[in-house]
Design goal:
homodimer; 318 residues; alpha/beta; 40% helix
C-alpha cells in the first residue's frame, strides 16, 4: 500500500460562510452594525470569499432580514469575493440593487429536501436558475448542490445524479459549483470519490466543498477533498451553523480549526490564524455559548505552557 | 498525484480507555458499582481491550481509588483484554493482586512532562519498567510513549527520539507499544510519518495509536494512522478525558464517533455501534454535560427523518 501525502502546490482557499449559514440559525438577531464589524474584520484575514448574507424571505429567515443594509455598510477588500445566497429570481432582483461580486444559488439534489427547504421542486429551482443566469448581468453565479452526500428524508444520494445536476447548472451558464454536505453525512471515502468525479467531469471549473462537522468528520472530509484535488472550502467561524435535521449537532466545519489543521499539517493556507481567532472571540461575545470550535480554547498545537518554578528546577537538576 | 483508499483487510480494533483516561479527570467520583456496570456493558460490544482503571496513588487520582474493587467485581469476556495503567513498580504490586490480562506502563518521552506528570525523570521511569517487566510474571506489559507528538512545556518532539524510546521499551521485554498524542498536538501528516517509522522499525510488534481530539483532528489522525498500517486505536466513550494543559478542550478521540466514521467509511470494525451509544447514554446520566461526542446527538449518518404529511403530499403530487 502506498500513500502520498496529499500536498498541493496550490494554496488552499478558505471561504467564510458563517455570516450567512451560521447567523441564519443563530438563535438571536445579531445587530446590523455588529455583523458589519465582523465582516470588516474578516475582510483583512486572507479569506478568499465571504458569504455576507442571504436574499431569502425575511419572514422565512428573519435573522438575515438586514441583507441590503449590511451590504451597504461593509468595507470592501478587492482581494475578497463578496457573495450572497439567493434561492430564486426574486433574490436576484434584490441582490442586483446591492454591490456584490457573486450570487450563490442553491438547490438540494434531493427532491424531498428541496421541497422542505425551498418549497420548490428541483425542476422549479432549475427554472429559477435559468432566469437568474439570464438576468445576472456581470454578476458571477455560483451554484450549490445541497444534500450532495445524503438527504435527511430519503437517505443515500446517487453520486452520478449529483454530477448530472452539476452539468445542468453549468449548461445554464452557472460559473462555478459548490458540492455541499448540508447535513454532515459525508465520509472521507465518499468525499474523495465525488470530488474526483467532479474534477474529471468539469476540468477548469472552480469547485468548492461545503462541509459540516455534524458527525465529527468535517476536517477529515476536507483533507480527503484536498487529496482529490479540491482547493476551495467553505467554513464557518466558531463552527456556527447547524442542521435542523440533526438536533444538537455542530454546524459547518469550523474555520479556525480547519485553518489550524491545514497550516500545521503543512499545506499552504494564507489565512491569518491568530487574527481570525480574535474575530471568533468577538463573535463569542455576541453569541455566547454557541461556538463549537476547539482551537480557540485549546490554543494552537505549538502552544507552550510555562513550567512552574518547581518543575523548572527539577528539570535543571542533575 | 495518486491516492489509494487506505482500506485494510485487517479489522480495525478499538480499545476503550474512557474508564481510565476519562474517569480519572471526570470532575466527580463515579460510584464503583456504576463503573462496574459500564465496564460490563462495554465487555459485550466487540471492543478488543478495555483499560479498566489505573494503579496510581489514590491521593494523586482519587477518582480511581477503587481500582481493586472494580477489578474484583467486573464480569470478564474472554475475547476482551482487560488492562490497567501502572506508572511504577508499586503499581505492579497492586495489579498482581488482581485479575488482569495486561498492565500498561506509561512514560512521557518529554522529560519535562514526565516530571510534571509522574514526578520521575525518563531514566527513572525506565528503571521502573525494568523492574516491572522482570516481575510481571505472565502478565502482558504494554508500554505507552506519552507526548510522542508534542510536549506542552517544551514543544516539538523529535520522532527519532520517540522511536529510540520504543526500542528501549522493547529491549526491556515490553510486549507492545502505544504511541500517544497526550495533548492532542498531532497532525495527520505527522501521525502517518511516525506510524510508518514504527511499523518499519518494529515489524510484528503490536502497535496502538492513542489520540486526543483537542484540536479537532482526532478522527483525521486515526485515518492517517490506518493509511500507514495501524489497526489498533484507543478511544474514549463520549469523548471523555481531557488534557490539563489544554483547558476547555475535548478529551480522547470519541469511541462512538470513531467507530461511526470507520463503519460508514467502509472499514472493517466489529464494534456494535447502537449498543455502544446506549452505554454512552448511561454514562451521560452519570456525567451530565461533559460528553463531547457528536454522533450520539446527531444520529448515524444514515438516519432518516420522517416527512411531514404536507411534505409527503407535495413530494407525491405530480
Amino acid at each position: 500500500m502506498t500513500f502520498e501525502r496529499p500536498l498541493t502546490e496550490h494554496p488552499i482557499l478558505i471561504q467564510e460562510v458563517g455570516m450567512r449559514d451560521g447567523l441564519q440559525s443563530a438563535g438571536s438577531f445579531i445587530e446590523t452594525d455588529d455583523k458589519v464589524s465582523l465582516i470588516d474584520q474578516l475582510s483583512s484575514l486572507g479569506l478568499k470569499k465571504i458569504e455576507v448574507t442571504s436574499f431569502v424571505s425575511p419572514k422565512a429567515v428573519p435573522l438575515l432580514a438586514d441583507a441590503e443594509v449590511v451590504l451597504s455598510k461593509i468595507q470592501r477588500n478587492p482581494d475578497v469575493v463578496y457573495t450572497a445566497l439567493i434561492p430564486n429570481a426574486r433574490g436576484l432582483e434584490r441582490a442586483l440593487q446591492t454591490e456584490l461580486d457573486e450570487v450563490n444559488v442553491v438547490m438540494s439534489v434531493s427532491e424531498a429536501h428541496n421541497l422542505a427547504n425551498l418549497r420548490m421542486r428541483c425542476s422549479e429551482s432549475l427554472e429559477q436558475f435559468r432566469i437568474i443566469t439570464r438576468d445576472s448581468g456581470s454578476l458571477r453565479v455560483n451554484g450549490t448542490l445541497a444534500t450532495a452526500f445524503g438527504c435527511p428524508f430519503t437517505g443515500p444520494v446517487d453520486s452520478s445524479e449529483v454530477l448530472d445536476w452539476g452539468r445542468r447548472y453549468l449548461d445554464l451558464g452557472i460559473d462555478s459549483l459548490t458540492i455541499a454536505d448540508t447535513i454532515g453525512a459525508a465520509t472521507p471515502g465518499q468525499v474523495y470519490s465525488v470530488a474526483t468525479a467532479f474534477i474529471q467531469a468539469f476540468p477548469g471549473i472552480e469547485l468548492t466543498l461545503h462541509l459540516h462537522n455534524t458527525r465529527g468528520l468535517g476536517i477529515a472530509n476536507a483533507l480527503a477533498g484536498i487529496a482529490a484535488g479540491i482547493t476551495r472550502f467553505d467554513a464557518s467561524l466558531g463552527g456556527i451553523g447547524g442542521c435542523p435535521y440533526a438536533p444538537g449537532a455542530t454546524g459547518n466545519v469550523c474555520t479556525e480549526d480547519l485553518v489550524h489543521a491545514l497550516i500545521f499539517d503543512g499545506y499552504s493556507c494564507k489565512v491569518l490564524l491568530p487574527e481570525l481567532i480574535e474575530v471568533v472571540n468577538a463573535l463569542d461575545v455576541l453569541l455566547p455559548g454557541s461556538l463549537t470550535g476547539l482551537v480557540r480554547t485549546s490554543g494552537l498545537r505549538d502552544r507552550v505552557h510555562s513550567m512552574s518554578e518547581g518543575l523548572q528546577s527539577m528539570l535543571e537538576s542533575v
